[in-house]
Amino acid sequence: MIGYLQLENGRTFEGTLFGKVEDVTGEVVFNTGMTGYQELMTDPSYYGQIVTMTYPLIGNYGINLEDLESDRPKITGLIVRERAKHPSNFRCEMDLDSYLKYSGVTGLEGIDTRALTKVIRDHGTMRGVITTRMLTDTQLKQRLDSYDNGDAVRQVTARESYTLEGAGVHVAIMDFGIKNNILRSFQAKGCKVTVFPATASWQEVLQVRPDGIFLSNGPGDPKDCREILENVKELVERKPTIGICLGHQLIALALGGDTQKLAFGHRGSNHPVKDLGRDRVFITSQNHGYVVKDVPESMEVTHISMNDGSIEGLRHKDKPIFTVQFHPEASPGPSDSDYIFEQFMTLLEEVEQGA
Ligand SMILES: NC(=O)CC[C@H](N)C(=O)O
């Protein structure tokens, strides 16, 4: 069945629908990874977004149910140049189309994704609809105006707190839309983790007497997380804390810094980031549309993007707090920056010994 992508700026692309055939509205973003489509579709940070893959053939190794980053896809729509109809991989359990149908996500194939990516790169990320019939300008405007992703974190956070046992240090995790591989990364280091919904108060979190706090990745604009910010302010004062992506942005805001929206974001598996302390460049996995613009006075920059010079990591000058904008847990992407988890473990040990 024929389907259309209609963008906020009036550009229209025609293709063929797959997955669940339904009209959807979202923010249209592009991801440059050649692989990793199932991880990114299920990464809760993409909640409310229509993702276009720049790599032209998607679905060729199918879907397996082990590499999902959350219980189900969190994207609103998926746009590809060509959908692989005959996946081949020893771990493949179903094809992309069946998975999207099963989980109720709309796909659009046969799109000139290079042209679409150029539009987003030149004009910035914008809203769009995938639709079964062309909308008039007024209808399109109405649909786009009804799009609101302001409560994205609430939609994807855990409903209740839970604990995963481990013999090592105890990390309290604030789940703003956490990826499974972050939990796996902490477990691989032997940690016990207690995961809290984003709505948990700082008192509830401290009640489990954690050794450290982890602020997760998550969808949307960090400035929409007003109540969470109040909790973050209290937590960072009291415990060693690490923040990743949305967690990084929230710490910056909580300590008096500022964030802004990037023109078209960083989404892909090969973003070079310089660790200024180590004087080394790491290839990182990224997925963000916002960035820290003004660094809080109490913090300093530890990492920068080699692509656009934007801030990729911060450290507190006196307190045991540090943050990164990229994804050290990878999935998808290279695991070069797993050392960030090690660094947090070392920090917790140092605090423990100093206490
Ligand atoms: N992966 C993330 O945590 C993304 C953070 C935030 N939602 C952004 O787009 O910048």
Automatic annotation (TrEMBL):
Q: Which UniProt keywords apply?
A: Amino-acid biosynthesis, Arginine biosynthesis, ATP-binding, Glutamine amidotransferase, Ligase, Nucleotide-binding, Pyrimidine biosynthesis
**Reaction(s) catalyzed by this protein?**
hydrogencarbonate + L-glutamine + 2 ATP + H2O = carbamoyl phosphate + L-glutamate + 2 ADP + phosphate + 2 H(+); L-glutamine + H2O = L-glutamate + NH4(+)
According to its UniProt record, the EC number is 6.3.5.5
Question: Is Nucleotide-binding there in the keyword field?
Answer: yes
What the protein does? Small subunit of the glutamine-dependent carbamoyl phosphate synthetase (CPSase). CPSase catalyzes the formation of carbamoyl phosphate from the ammonia moiety of glutamine, carbonate, and phosphate donated by ATP, constituting the first step of 2 biosynthetic pathways, one leading to arginine and/or urea and the other to pyrimidine nucleotides. The small subunit (glutamine amidotransferase) binds and cleaves glutamine to supply the large subunit with the substrate ammonia.
Family of this protein = Belongs to the CarA family.
Q: What is this protein called?
A: Carbamoyl phosphate synthase small chain
What organism is recorded for this protein?
Alkalibacter rhizosphaerae
